[in-house]
Amino acid sequence: MTAVKRADARKNIESIMDAATACLARDPDVSVAEIAKAAGVGRVTLYGHFESRATLVTQVVARAIQQSDEALGAVDLDGDPRAALRRLLEASWKLTQQYGALIVAAEQSMPHEQFQAIHVGLIDRWKPLMERGRSEGSFRDDQPLQWQLTLLQSVLHAASGAVYRGEIDAAEAAGLIDGTIQAALTAPE
Amino acid sequence: MTAVKRADARKNIESIMDAATACLARDPDVSVAEIAKAAGVGRVTLYGHFESRATLVTQVVARAIQQSDEALGAVDLDGDPRAALRRLLEASWKLTQQYGALIVAAEQSMPHEQFQAIHVGLIDRWKPLMERGRSEGSFRDDQPLQWQLTLLQSVLHAASGAVYRGEIDAAEAAGLIDGTIQAALTAPE
DNA sequence: GAGATAGTGAACGTCAATGTACAGGTTAAG
DNA sequence: CTTAACCTGTACATTGACGTTCACTATCTC
């Protein structure tokens, strides 16, 4: 009963998780074979470390969620809501670029409740700031909070797609996102 | 060589197209079996009328595109750009609800160029109004037009998802979409 | 250097979906 | 009423992905 795995095994597990993250971020339906190839590893090796495609996805998602949660938790949400929003958007944009469609893969491969729990956890990083901004009059509150949260996600996702298709430059995306969201959260007149 | 098909055959073809539209709008990956069941028809019958899944999707998409194009073409785009935008958004929202994820199915089942042609055709319904609104000062022009077009689609899609998940009411969606887009197209200050 | 640990490709069984073939039962249309 | 057109369920071949087994090789660790 070895307590720790061999060095090459650990390295391969890392490679697989990284490759799976990258692949799933692009296409939530990638085959295990492709992930293995991208990781520079035999398909059988992958199955030696992960019981099934589902468990691999689950673990990859778990890691991504953890890192995302840490990254968002490190953002300073105090002070002017608009400035805080900008900081939060910038951090979220980086995560969106990194993980892209991974969320879709998660939705398809995980039990619905588990996914819901994770998703809610991430959304809750946004909620307090949005609520504060609304009550302080920085953001419009003539629309449901839930809709505004959905909108945030949607715009980030849209930007990710636009960059992927080459419609906009990755460098200018952050500015566009911020400019768009800030405007969308401003009531007319 | 019968010139016209029998009445029940025509009726079944209709049922299949309708069912396929509804199913594909919800899930771009529905199986042929499910579509047939939804149409109240045997799977074999479906294959009697459509060579393959791909041709079925293509025909369904073609019909949807044609109806969409007609609906959008009927919208009055003259006068105040803001008012015209509201009319165009309302029409587009109806189409989005009807066809939902059908566009995704099209992307997966059709040759890329053909899809591109169709997509560009639909986008072009928006472009002139957006360009006019920008040059007349009604809409902000400090962001790429392409990004604003992407944003429009994204918001419509987001609303569709939100309604599906029960987050917002279908009745209020149109107002939210318009309120959001109008604000997003307004430059701050 | 020896042995446990890990990696490899090839082969296999399973499963779900696509598409086809067939043998009969229905029904529209003249 | 007759018949050709149509529908149906079952069965089958095919494909692609998943997951496992096996015999063998490579390499980490002590």
UniProtKB/TrEMBL annotation, chains A, B:
Domain HTH tetR-type, by residue range, is 10-68
Keywords tagged on the record: DNA-binding, Transcription, Transcription regulation
InterPro entries, A to Z: Homeodomain-like_sf, HTH-type_TetR-like_transc_reg, HTH_TetR, Tet_transcr_reg_TetR-rel_C_sf
GO-annotated molecular function: DNA-binding transcription factor activity; transcription cis-regulatory region binding
Q: Which residues bind DNA?
A: 31-50
Pfam families, alphabetically? TetR_N
Task: Spell out the protein name for this chain.
Answer: AcrR family transcriptional regulator
